[in-house]
Amino acid sequence: MTQSIYDFNVNTISGHEVSLNEYQGRVVLVVNTASKCGFTKQYTGLENLYNENKTLGFSVLGFPCNQFGEQEKGNNDEISQFCELNFGVTFPLFEKINVNGENADPLFNYLTTNARGILGTKRIKWNFTKFLVGKDGRVVKRYGSTTKPEDIDNDIKRLLAV
User: Fold this and answer.
1) Above 80 in pLDDT, residue 5?
2) What is the 3-state secondary structure (H, E, C) of the chain?
3) Phi/psi at 138 (nearest 5 deg)?
4) CA neighbours within 13 Å on the CB side: how many for 38?
5) pTM of the predicted structure, to 2 decimals
6) Which of 7, 37, 113, 152 could bond 71 through an S-S bridge, CB–CB 3.0 to 4.6 Å?
């Protein structure tokens, strides 16, 4: 039985398998992202959160997804270049995945099972849904697409202080 995000392996955007166990003891924000979305500008806020808090034990993990309005059509190289060139993203990005349905990535099945949305729904509604994970690797809170990264900063700082 899955106990935390540390039980999962994922592929980086460059195709290398990594264990999320590498993030043990860190506060993590997992986000499903897209390059052609009205919320794409949140990359800036995510990068700011990452830069302000990474030395304190915080990471942002970005997972591109094309399930919402086909707003992430590019391949992994194109996505990586887009994020770096347009938003200066330095936080870890991972291979494009599905977050809903029968082909949903196991990590996102875990996240959505442990942090349900409005009315208890498991389904992710749109790009830039965020999952805040504590130092123990367990999901603390889910935020919808409209929640700006800077609005999560206090929750992050609270978890970093524990």
Assistant:
1) yes
2) CCCCHHHCEEEECCCCEEEHHHHCCCEEEEEEECCCCCCCCHHHHHHHHHHHHHHHCEEEEEEEECCCCCCCCCCHHHHHHHHHHHHCCCCCEECCECCCCCCCCHHHHHHHHHCCCHHHCCCCCCCCCEEEECCCCCEEEEECCCCCHHHHHHHHHHHHHC
3) -100, 145
4) 6
5) 0.92
6) 37
Active site (annotated) includes residue 37: yes
- With 0-12 CB in 10 A as exposed, 13-18 as middle and 19+ as buried, what is 85? exposed
- Domains of the chain in start order, with CATH, are 5-161 (3.40.30.10)
Which residue in 37, 99, 115, 124 is the catalytic one? 37
Name which of 57, 52, 50, 76 is nearest 65 in CA terms.
76
Q: Would you say the C-alpha torsion 25, 87, 98, 139 has a positive or negative sign?
A: positive
* Type of residue at 135: K
CB 133 within 8 A of CB 140: yes
The tokens for 81 are 């270049």
